[in-house]
Amino acid sequence: MNELAKKLRSHVKGKDTVYLCIGTDRSTGDALGPLVGDRLKLLGYKAYGTTKDLIHAGNLEQKIQEIKSKHPSSTIVAIDASLGRSERVGAISINEGPLKPGAGVNKNLPPVGDCHISGVVNVAGFMEYMVLQNTPLSRVFDMAKKIVRIINLATAEPLVAATLERTKGQMKRNRLLELLQDAEGEEKSQILAKITILDEEVRESA
Questions:
Q1: Which of 64, 67, 120, 156 has the fewest Cβ atoms within 10 Å of its own Cβ atom?
Q2: pTM for the full model?
Q3: Which pairing describes strands 17-21 and 75-84: parallel, antiparallel, or unpaired?
């Protein structure tokens, strides 16, 4: 994971970065992008494409134009699910250049991103739509959490990246607990969600 974080850091270091998370919650395999978007949004990143505001084949071109208009000089990191060989299922890759969304299911969509993160959620080659719909949700959740951890590591200052998982998570958690005391309604729900994400990361890194 550290190698992937280093690779991503080389693309986003010192740059204003926007994360464009592609997919839909109507198909478990294709939900990878929106699940990452949810977590990034809660953690304060500039993320577009969540389970409440999806970016998918039907609105991708419009959303790209809106994001580029709002963030004309930002680096765009595109995130999407993909299909691949059986031995690659669960793998996460980071590559320079634009993502070609929909390629695995033969959709002709505009390329997007200065670099991209792709997660192989299932096997390619046969009835791709059915394969995506029958992808285990637990696998997709686990991959989404890993991608967010990679982004957390990549966007940390280089000198503290090595200790991020040991210290930064606990510091954030303590601050969130302080804010929770005075929070109400939707704000309280958002803070609790952030604490849950941090607790999951701590358990996984233990």
A1: 156
A2: 0.78
A3: parallel
**Residue pointed to by tokens 């990679």:** 150
Q: 119 - beta bridge partners? A: 81, 92
Distance CA 177, CA 90 (A): 33
Residue pair 112/101 in contact (Cβ under 8 Å)? The answer is yes
Say how many CA atoms lie within 13 Å of 22 toward its Cβ.
31
CA 92/CA 180 separation, integer angstroms = 34
List the strands of the sheet with 47-48, edge to edge. 47-48, 17-21, 75-84, 115-123, 92-96
Specify the 3-state DSSP secondary structure of 21.
Answer: strand
Question: In 10 A of CB 60, how many CB atoms?
Answer: 19
HSE at residue 27, side-chain half, CA atoms within 13 A, is 20
For 85-97, the pLDDT digits (tens) are 999 999 999 999 9
